Amino acid sequence: MFKEFPEIIRIPVGTWIDRFMEWVMATFGEFFDIIGSWILQFMLNLEKFFLWIPWPVLILAAGIGGWRLIGKWWAGVVIGCLLFFIGTLGLWKLAMMTLALVTGAVIISLAIGIPVGIAMAGSNLLDSILKPFLDGMQTMPSFVYLIPALMLFGLGKVPALFATIIYAVPPVIRLTNVGIREVPYNLVEAAHAFGASYWQTLFKVQLPLARPTIMVGINQTTMMALAMVVIASMIGAKGLGLEVLLAINRIEIGRGFEAGLCIVILAIVIDRLTYAMSSPKSS
């Protein structure tokens, strides 16, 4: 009798979501078209910028940045050599397109995530409300994000960026919130006692002390954005992710390995640079 769950007891969540999305498309379709055109122009300009930079300049800048941030000259040499290796595989242009997508996603994620994290740190109620949504955004299968992105923006760079942002923004929100909450309360009280306003306390006390934690959040957001490049390629994002997808479709092991290796190299370089920015040495 109780071996199977009765079909009569069913909550049609999927149907409700479909109807809600239909209402959103009918009501705000033009608004999303405008937003999509703005984001597309932003992404095209960002991509043109990365493709415009001469490859020796970018490799040299990354190497010097690694040396200055990490504090070891050989770290800069290794970073430069890794990026040079991407060029030797003939995938420099695709790597720059991928880097543009990741950079755009991180910029918008930080513009959204840091203010939201600050607001959560200042309100226990908002913290309690948003945490379940952040849990859902981090645990929901990433393929699910492609469906609303396709419905709202169609195929191309814009839905890829949109899906990447949803997947990548939770870490910076969480760690901004945690970083500010971990600032000793007596320091905040002392700032108020000396007549500091809320904004002065935030920018001169809380954010500087929370900087290492926030930088870890930026690091994690960047890594998660990079992890989405292959999935984003399924809805029109070009770059290394598309190369991996084509290799899978054609069962070309070598081609897929080369593109995957380039993604790993970008991840290592970005991870080391952003992690170094959170260390006291870079302060």
Summed up, what is this model?
By secondary structure, this protein is mainly α. It is built from twelve helices and no strands.
Helix-strand layout with pairing:
Layout: H1 13-52, H2 55-70, H3 73-88, H4 92-121, H5 124-139, H6 146-153, H7 157-181, H8 185-193, H9 198-227, H10 229-232, H11 240-250, H12 253-277
Helix pairs in contact: 1-4, 1-6, 2-3, 2-12, 3-12, 4-7, 4-9, 5-7, 6-7, 7-9, 8-9, 9-12, 11-12
Question: Can you give keywords for this protein?
Answer:
single chain; MetI-like fold; 12 helices
Q: How is this structure best described in words?
A:
It is a single chain. The protein has 12 helices and no strands. The protein is mainly alpha-helical. The chain has one domain: MetI-like (MetI-like fold, Orthogonal Bundle), CATH 1.10.3720. It is globular. 35% of the residues are buried.
What structural category arises from helix and sheet content? mainly alpha
Low-confidence stretches: none
What best-fitting shape do the alpha-carbon axes yield?
globular
Largest sheet: none
**Beta strand %:** under 5%
Provide the residue-averaged pLDDT: 84
DSSP strand tally: 0
Overall number of structural domains: 1
In the CATH scheme, the class would be: Mainly Alpha
Q: CATH superfamily, please?
A: MetI-like
